[in-house]
Amino acid sequence: MKNHVSHIIPAIALALLAGPIFASEHTDSDSAEADVTPQKIYATRYQSEDWGLGIGVRRGDIPYATEEDEVYDVLPIIKYRNDYFFIDGMEAGAHIWKNDEHQVNLYTRFRFVDIPTELQNESQSQAFDFGLQYRFLHDAWESDVAFMSDSNKRSYGYARTQYHWEYGDWYLNPYAEFNWKSADFNHYYYGLEQYETSGGIEFNAGINARYHVHSNLYLLGKFGVGRIDDDTASLPSMDTQYQYESFIGFGFFPDFSNQSGKSKATKAKPVKSSNSDDEFLRIAHGWATPSNLNEILSWETRTDPYNNQLTSIFYGTRLTESLFNFPIELYFTPGAVWHHESDVQSNLAEGVIAIKAFYTFEFGPRWRLGIAEGLSYVSNVTHIEGSELDEKGYKPSKLLNYLDFSLDVNMGDLFNSSSMDKMWMGYSIHHRSGIYEKSSAFGRIGGGSNYQTLYLQWHF
Fold first, then answer.
1. Which of 109, 346, 397, 436 is most buried (most C-beta within 10 Å)?
2. pTM of the entire structure?
């Protein structure tokens, strides 16, 4: 099988970068207090959330005629939305048109292909596919229909209905879904290009669950079952008509513990004042290193002999000023990265979406520690990454997990200048990896790349 990771991820990342910038609201600087603009009233607290970050393990049945019956994946989860787009776990979209109950979206979601672990790096057949989605929302009910295709225009679609139910610390989300799959889709993904078959309709149903443990900490779970159509299930490449999947993990989401579980959650968004610093721009330049994270954090960094470099710009919008009642700020931060041409690689682009946490402390001037978790997609694999994976015998993946570790200092404190109070200067590690072969979403690879960067970050 070929690598079908969608080519639209960079475009989505750039849309995410631009959307929040144009979404910000401003008031007159002479206003004595911030106005409040009421937003849609939601039936559950889950529907009112703007952000979330989690991780967990997915188990999927293998429907093919193989010795292995199940496969496991580690999956990171990002949730974020504004008036222009949304990210919700393994699906995302940008609004073409919407009102309180109806949406038309450019849409992408991840398509799993459950095959034995040892085949996943070579095949890399699962991917984010692209299409159009219509969504209808009414109170706790939600229905949507989408028409999709993979990167080779093998088409399919789905119609889904789900219900959001919440009581106390529990949130339950039962759903049912019909998937229509074209003949060429079934021929490739189920017939493995060896057995002809017709198009068919697959049925999926299940339930997502979430339990509020304490403050911002939640436990996550899912159980679902899918029924493949008769003609496809009878192919010689298949040995079961039913697929079961489950997921268990944990995440960090807004803390609604002071609100009643039975009451409707209302979102009120304060308009930003002229002194606000809840957004930032970060400009960075970095140098590649063949060292792994442990070596970098142990001050044993090696120099890249080819001097590969990158330049990046990140936008950030603050999600919360505290986590677990500690002064830990969270920001949603998409970014665009340019990898410069060198003797061993051409210019190439990278798109990133992430959620980053900052903890501020004083040691003379104010300092901040930061860590981000997200997704990174490159237009072509960098030399520093590709050479490492070649040595280990992996086929590279353009989509990988993204981490960012940073330490910066406030320049206003450092130079005793109030005009520089919103400027920070720092060092960060730009890291891409496949989570130690634990995720087929990232090509089931171990390894990746690291860049050490210097940056300026301005809050406004």
1. 397
2. 0.85
